[in-house]
Automatic annotation (TrEMBL):
PANTHER family: CRYPTOCHROME, CRYPTOCHROME CIRCADIAN CLOCK 5 ISOFORM X1
One example of a Gene Ontology biological process annotation: response to stress
Comment on bound cofactor: Binds 1 FAD per subunit.
Cofactor(s) required, per the database record: (6R)-5,10-methylene-5,6,7,8-tetrahydrofolate; FAD
Pfam family, one: FAD_binding_7
Source species: Robiginitalea biformata (strain ATCC BAA-864 / DSM 15991 / KCTC 12146 / HTCC2501)
Protein name: Deoxyribodipyrimidine photolyase-class I
Amino acid sequence: SVNIFWFRRDLRLEDNRGLCEALGAGRPVLPIFIFDSEILDGLPADDPRVTFLHDRLQELRSRMQENQGSSLAIYHGKPLEIFKELASDWDVGQVFTNRDYEPYARDRDEQVGQWLSEQGIEFHTFKDQVIFEKDEVVKDDGDPYVVYTPYMKKWKQVFRDTPLATFDSAGQLGNLIAHSRLPNPDLADFGFERSAIPVPDYDMGGKLIDAYEDNRNYPAREGTSRLGPHLRFGTISIRQALGKALESSNETFWNELIWREFFMQILWHFPRTVHEAFRKEYDRIAWRNDESEFEKWREGRTGFALVDAGMRQLNASGYMHNRVRMLTASFLCKHLLIDWRWGEAYFAEKLLDYEMASNVGNWQWAAGSGVDAAPYFRIFNPMTQVDKFDKDKSYIREWIPEYGTEDYPEKMVDHKAARERCLKTYKAALD
Ligand code: FAD
């Protein structure tokens, strides 16, 4: 009989908690990955994230083959159906996996776990993608934090009492089943094709982390780590990433990783915020939702150079600098009065580092409707943002080759008038 380890967003052999538990549980382990058709059906055929997943899985598969004469079984379909197949092909004892906190994943795991337990198969899940989950960092009365700074302080306090764990999964690969002929579909087998957009490597070098605070706000500089997609898909463990961050005495970068966990626990406690404003009165805002204005924003043709440069960077590379994410999001919600959910969905489609908790959390922050959001009457001025963060316009010129020529569009709204309109509309909803 075998135990199964189900890879999801933890695509690495090193420091993988669930894999480590599976390998130590006494039976040979069959490692699997499922391209979930429920998720893939909504994506374009050349989605760069699917290419990245595919390539990364091939890498894992080769490493398993080289080292242990083992392999990785890759499937495409609905997870429950795949488990039904697996249970009829193999004598399965237990299934191991790492926890995922998004609402869809929670439902899926509940269904799969339920079915497995009806077959007498144990389903074990583990915390792996965060340092602290669920109720591990809450107020003294057990309520979740909805403001970042006290959450961050409590997080650090709890962290001081818990040494950073590591899990020797890589050292136990000898416990994988020795079986090299396992299913391995190509992208085309499930209707996908290779994307031309690559996921860049991350940089967690000491130089970058030490200078992070000075550089991180300037979109023209390569001053941030580009860890996003690697944390999303688990090509680095959060424990290893945090361990690196802690080698620097500067806490700014560490705090960013805590923002990630802050939004993850918000999504866990308030899954409704995926669709609803955290502050319910914000769902009374009379969004204008003009389709053609939304198109101009998407394509980077608003006439506001920093907004347009950001949208073009996103469209071309699957990445946008954080400073510019804040501005483009604010511009959509406030200058154009387009529902944050439209912008959230567009970012979800394009970002290589798309993370539901962080994307929803940050979009609600930009709209003013979220946890720890700035007061709504603080509206970014897209021109002064240029003076502050791209003074020599090198980021703008990099992404807008026609900037300064007559091919570049006129501003689509007047800043002052749009600002007034926003204040009036928000006020009407919130008063
Ligand atoms: P670095 O600056 O090097 O930060 C390191 C890591 O810290 C990031 O990879 C990320 O995991 C975490 N982090 C940093 N800032 C934040 C933040 N504000 N919220 C949560 N985590 C943070 N981040 C995502 O990972 N996925 C998203 O879908 C996402 N959508 C966003 C949407 C909007 C409107 C805004 C304003 C921000 C969004 N962010 C999102 C947060 C942030 O912009 C990105 O994490 C960051 O730009 C990624 O680049 P980096 O990996 O080089 O980050």
